[in-house]
Amino acid sequence: MVNLSVNLEINLAGIRLRNPIVLASGILGVSMSLLKRVEQAGAGAVTTKTITLNPRQGYANPVFVDLEYGFLNAMGLPNPGVDYFVREFFEGCERLNIPLIVSIGGGSAEEFYEICARICKCPMDAVELNLSCPHAKGYGLEVGADPQHVYDIVRRVRKCFSNKPIFVKLSATVPSIVEVAEAALKAGASGFVAINTVRAIAIDIYAKKPILSNVYGGLSGPAIKPIAVRVVYELYENFKNVPIIGVGGVDSWETAVEFLLAGARAVGIGSAVVRRDLEIFNEILEGLKRYLEVEGYDRVSDIVGLAHEVV
What we know:
- By secondary structure, this protein is α/β, with parallel strands linked by helices.
- The chain has helices at residues 32-40, 82-89, 109-119, 141-144, 147-160, 177-187, 225-238, 253-262, 272-276, 279-295; strands at 10-12, 15-17, 21-23, 45-47, 64-67, 70-73, 100-104, 126-130, 166-170, 191-194, 198-200, 203-204, 209-210, 217-220, 244-247, 266-269.
- It has a single domain (10-54, 75-200, 223-308), classed as TIM Barrel (Alpha-Beta Barrel).
- It is built from ten helices and 16 strands.
- The strands form four sheets. It has an eight-stranded parallel barrel with strand order 3-4-7-8-9-10-15-16, surrounded by seven helices. The chain has a four-stranded antiparallel sheet with strand order 5-6-14-11, with no helix packed on it. It has a two-stranded antiparallel sheet with strand order 1-2.
């Protein structure tokens, strides 16, 4: 069991988390029963899969490639749509004892607004705007790479959620992540999630063609961890007081600490769940506790951004 002598609680844009480990969007997030299992496994908060206005079947198989250094997927944002979400979660959310972050995706500011108008009365704690999915046509990165589009989307969403935190999920592959982040903040964003998967491709050398049906997919796992840490470091350097959830290749307590030192206040767990199941949450928490005790820190918040102070 985790030693309770070290305080793992954090404040994330006004939301109190019992610890900084968050279930990232895209993993296990369409069922309240699955999210409840993640809570019981030790997570400090959970994020739903990205919800769109209308149901999406996603792309045809193959949509997933297991690589030795991570995963490549092009699911196409499959989800049952916002109306199903409201039915599934409106009452069920109250069964969670940790914060719920709802991830939403749209192709325009108007579409984001319509989704928010339908979920604004659901018992949730924050919204994540997926402006960085690298493989869903008309969504994600296609609307999130332009600072003006980002500004318009966040501004419209803020009209629905005047008091709830809004986190913008960013891509590492935009021309200037600082410009996109600045636009989001000016429009009313509360914080960032960094990063989403990175656009990539895998080719079957015998079939002599791309493996994924969509050709392009999103790379996740350890391969993108150094990129994600760089983005978190850069965001903290430019927006020190803005909360960041660091995501990308977190599969151990060491990588979680690296994100925290770079400036993340919370750390998202995604593809590691596929390989390690839900035990990964407690493993990271135990390791994080031991690290803080050995290094002489009383609170996890003491190490957030610490890498910037010793450069």
